[in-house]
Structures are given as structure tokens and as C-alpha cells.
């Protein structure tokens, strides 16, 4: 913000000297000559003459983030689960109600990650960006260790419970890649059955990566003859890459799976 300095601006002072022999200077009249007593040329005060500094922008008020948890992937548990802020860490915690609904307040225009935990369920990250309106995340796709081991066995790999995982849905006929390369990619049909030879998501299917190293990775979807981009500020999309709208930044935590949806592949 800019502020004007008075060090480079001195009020004009008109000294009227009437010499009557050895007389003294005549005091100027304040009403007829305001500059003579340090006033602004338009008759206002010095404070009025200086430009007012810009007021800081008021931050947008917090938004309410709501969602639903019903177990979902490999689990239909109806027990209450905990929903806590991971990023920012000061969001606090809440629990789902009898219908699996939850609500938690988050700052506007912020990258947010929630951790959802429940008895017998693999801790799940919901990753998104808030805007300035309340946000509905929809249903959370939870998983459990038995389901993750089943996928790993079907792929012929060993499930590493200390690594992370990524799940995504809501798209079809797309392939997926992580940058840097990490983990084992898989695709599931609409019933959750592993598609061993698949190279893209089937209609109403889903997919993901197992055994992803903790840290932050970039997820990219691809579809021939189309351009794919993520819908940030709309449900679950990861965090945006400032240089590439086709990439979602995805945090990976040990022993957690990160659930992602909401992207679009359209005509280039």
C-alpha cells in the first residue's frame, strides 16, 4: 500500500513584509491567505491534502464444507467417523451424524485436505480448494485394508500398508499417470471388480494407484483427441498446478488413501 510522505511537500508560506521605516512584518490574514498559515491551497487541512492510504482488503469469510460418508468402496459401515483438518491443521474435527453427514468450517480461497477416519476403515484424504461459497463434497469413497489387499493380490503385487494410495472416479475412457512415477495403477469396473488388462476407466468405473510413496505427486488424466482438466472449487479435485490445468497436485500420507473425482475431458 502506498502512503504519501510530507517530507517532500512543504506548505507554501507567503511572507508579506510591509516596511514602514523600521516597522515589524505584518501578520498575514488567515482567511484571505490560508497558505500563509500552512493550510492547503483549497482551504482544507494538510491531512485532507494528502491522499488517504488504501484500505487493506478484507478476507472473505469462512465457508461451510459439507459431505457424506457411507463406507463406499469395499465397506458399508454406518458407524460415525471422524473428519479432521489436515491442511490447514487448525480446522479442528467433527463427526458424522446418524445419516453419515458432516459439516466443517474452512477458510475461503484455500487449499484444504481433510482426513476421514473410522473403525475398520483406511484413513482417507479429501483434497480440494475452497472458493468464497459453501462447498458440498458429496460422498466419500472409503476403503479398508482387506479391500486394498484384494486389489494388490489381483495385480500380483504385495500391498504396503506404510505407503499411500490414490482412488479416482467420475470419469470414463481416460488413462491416468502419476508424476513422478510411483505405485501400481489399477482400474475397476462398476461393481468394483479389478480389470486386469484395462488401460483406461470404463463407464461408471474407477481406478487408482497402490503403494504410492508419501509426499506430493501430480495426477494427470489423458484421453485421445481430448483435453482433460480438473474442476477445482468443485467437489474433490486435488490442488491446482499453477502452470498446467491438466494436473492435480495430490498429497500422499503413509497408510492413507487419497480420494479424487471431478475432472473433465472435452474437445481441445
Q: Could you explain the architecture of this structure?
A:
The chain folds into 2 domains: about 10-55, no CATH class; about 65-265, Immunoglobulins (Immunoglobulin-like, Sandwich). The model is unreliable at about 1-30 and about 35-40 (pLDDT under 50). It has helices at about 45-50, 145-155, and strands at about 65-70, 80-85, 95, 100-105, 110-115, 125-130, 135-140, 165-170, 175-180, 185-190, 205-210, 215-220, 225-230, 240, 245-250, 255-260, 265. The protein is mainly beta. It is globular and about 65 Å long. It is built from 2 helices and 17 strands.
Order of helices and strands: HEEEEEEEHEEEEEEEEEE
Number of domains: 2
H/I helix tally: 2
Question: What's the shape?
Answer: globular
Please compute the radius of gyration using only Cα atoms.
Answer: 31 Å
The fold-level CATH name of the largest domain is Immunoglobulin-like
Short structural summary:
By secondary structure, the chain is mainly β.
Features:
2 domains; 268 residues; mainly beta; four-stranded antiparallel sheet; 38% strand; Immunoglobulin-like; 2 helices; globular; single chain; disordered N terminus; eight-stranded mixed sheet
Write the layout of secondary structure elements.
Blueprint: H1 46-49, E1 63-72, E2 82-87, E3 93-95, E4 101-106, E5 111-117, E6 124-129, E7 135-142, H2 145-155, E8 164-169, E9 175-179, E10 184-188, E11 206-212, E12 215-222, E13 227-230, E14 239-241, E15 244-252, E16 257-260, E17 263-266
Parallel strand pairs: 1-7, 6-16, 8-16
Antiparallel strand pairs: 1-4, 2-3, 2-5, 5-6, 8-11, 9-12, 10-11, 12-15, 13-17, 14-15
Amino acid at each position: 500500500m502506498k502512503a504519501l510522505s510530507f517530507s517532500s511537500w512543504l506548505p507554501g508560506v507567503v511572507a508579506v513584509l510591509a516596511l514602514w521605516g523600521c516597522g515589524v512584518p505584518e501578520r498575514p490574514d488567515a482567511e484571505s491567505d490560508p497558505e500563509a498559515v500552512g493550510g492547503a491551497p483549497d482551504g482544507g487541512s494538510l491531512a485532507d491534502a494528502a491522499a488517504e492510504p488504501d484500505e487493506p482488503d478484507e478476507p472473505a469469510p469462512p465457508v461451510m464444507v459439507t459431505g457424506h460418508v457411507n463406507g463406499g468402496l469395499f465397506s458399508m459401515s454406518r458407524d460415525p467417523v471422524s473428519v479432521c483438518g489436515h491442511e490447514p491443521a487448525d480446522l479442528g474435527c467433527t463427526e458424522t451424524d446418524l445419516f453419515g453427514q458432516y459439516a466443517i468450517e474452512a477458510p475461503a480461497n484455500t487449499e484444504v485436505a481433510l482426513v476421514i477416519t473410522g473403525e475398520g476403515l483406511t484413513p482417507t484424504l479429501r483434497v480440494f480448494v475452497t472458493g468464497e461459497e459453501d462447498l458440498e463434497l458429496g460422498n466419500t469413497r472409503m476403503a479398508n485394508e482387506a479391500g486394498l489387499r484384494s486389489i494388490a493380490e489381483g495385480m500380483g503385487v504385495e500391498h504396503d500398508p506404510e505407503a499411500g494410495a490414490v482412488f479416482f472416479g467420475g470419469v470414463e475412457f481416460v488413462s491416468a499417470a502419476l508424476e513422478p512415477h510411483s505405485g501400481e495403477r489399477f482400474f475397476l469396473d462398476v461393481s468394483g471388480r479389478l480389470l486386469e488388462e484395462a488401460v483406461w476407466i470404463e463407464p461408471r468405473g474407477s481406478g487408482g494407484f497402490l503403494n504410492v510413496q508419501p509426499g506430493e505427486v501430480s495426477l494427470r488424466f489423458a484421453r485421445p483427441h481430448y483435453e482433460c482438466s480438473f474442476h477445482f472449487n468443485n467437489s474433490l479435485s486435488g490442488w491446482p498446478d499453477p502452470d498446467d490445468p491438466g494436473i492435480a497436485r495430490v498429497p500422499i500420507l503413509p497408510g492413507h488413501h487419497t480420494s479424487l473425482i471431478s475432472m473433465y475431458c472435452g474437445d481441445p
